[in-house]
Amino acid sequence: MVTPRVIGTCVVAMALIAGAYWIRTLQDAGRPSAVWRDGRIAEVKNCGTPRDDGQFLACAELVCQRAVALKLSKPDTAKISAGMRVDTDDIRYVRIVGTIDDAESASRRMPKGYECYLEGLQIHAARVIE
Fold it and tell me: Could you give the CA distance from residue 60 to residue 113 in angstroms, rounded to a whole number?
């Protein structure tokens, strides 16, 4: 038999879970993020007008990774990692260098790295490095 105490405990537990999810959603709402589909970044979110240099650089990395994934023949098996950012005099002009690891097989030739040159969040050049 289900007692009112059991029902109350279940309701409180569900409320706590929903509250924790809601708080996490609010915390992540302003962070730059990417929506991936078929191994490619379909959309970069929360990068309209970056609030500070940290958010700008996070957005620049995502924009760069998106451009690099478009150049790969099988991006769904690649792990694209930002290695370092080399900033010029102004924070809005940035060069990003990173690595590409093949998660599936070492037998297929996958580029080993990449670099991007950006002005603001616009790609000027993106290339993969063999």
Answer: 17
Q: Which of 69, 62, 37 is nearest to 48 (CA)?
A: 62
| Tens of pLDDT, residues 7-23 | 778 777 776 776 666 65
Domain boundaries defined on the chain: 33-129
Amino acid at 76: D
- Provide the CA 71 distance to its chain's centre, in angstroms: 17
Place of tokens 């010029």: 88
* pTM for the structure as a whole: 0.67
Distances (CA, A) of 112 to 5, 68, 73, 130: 60, 12, 14, 5
